[in-house]
Amino acid sequence: MTKIQKEDQMKTGRSSAAVIGVAGGIALGMWIASAITLMDRDTIKPAPAVTRQVTEPVAAPVVEPSAIKTRRVAARAAATPVAPAVEVEAPKLVMTVPVTAPQLHNRMKPVLARGTKINLAVEGFSDAEQFATLAHAARNTQVPFILLKHRVLTEHRSLADAIRASKPDLDAEAEVQRARSAAKSDLAALSATANN
Predict the structure, then answer these.
(1) pLDDT tens per residue, range 87-146
(2) Number of domains in the chain
């Protein structure tokens, strides 16, 4: 090999190392950002219910030109009438159970297959209802939880599509509704326990 060829190989090697370093840095940054985002989601709490006042607009009366002068003087003396305030209650926020809540873990442990590490099972889920729905769907359909989780979270399929991929003979939509109903029931029971 000539000296020029060796120098070209070294330059190529250095360039490859730099590209790999940059790609690794970007991947590490994305991983850290997603971990921080997940931590922030767990600390966010719903705001308390707020009431607000809504006033109804008052229609302006029709005034004849001859009464304008008289009206101007009377308007200075009297305050403009305002419709009474109507209180409207803002929608009440439902207490949400974080995916990391120990109560949720205890409630879902019997639903998942024996030996499942609950902390690993909840990773990647945005909320407790999504996690509980998928766990119930896995138990009801006998499709492995980890397979459904992969299809829903990694492949971004709907839960019905994920079920259909493993068990095409099942009514996937009905199974999703059944699992969602069971998950909502579990979460409602946890919320009721927390409120008492």
Answers:
(1) 545 444 444 667 777 888 888 888 998 888 888 888 998 888 999 999 999 999 999 999
(2) 3
CA distance 155 to 158: 9
> Do 107 and 183 fall within a single domain?
yes
- Domain-embedded: residue 97: no
Would you say 194 and 156 are in contact if contact means Cβ atoms under 8 Å apart?
Answer: no
Q: Is residue 85 within 8 Å of 53, Cβ to Cβ? A: yes
List, for residues 75-97, the tens digit of each pLDDT value: 555 555 555 555 545 444 444 66
Q: Which residues form the domain of 14?
A: 1-44
DSSP string, 118-184: HHHHTTT-SSHHHHHHHHHHHHHHT--HHHHHIIIIIS---HHHHHHHH-TTS-HHHHHHHHHHHHH
Does the pTM surpass 0.85? The reply is no
Asked whether residue 94 is assigned to any structural domain, the reply reads no
- Residue 55 has which token pair? 């006033």
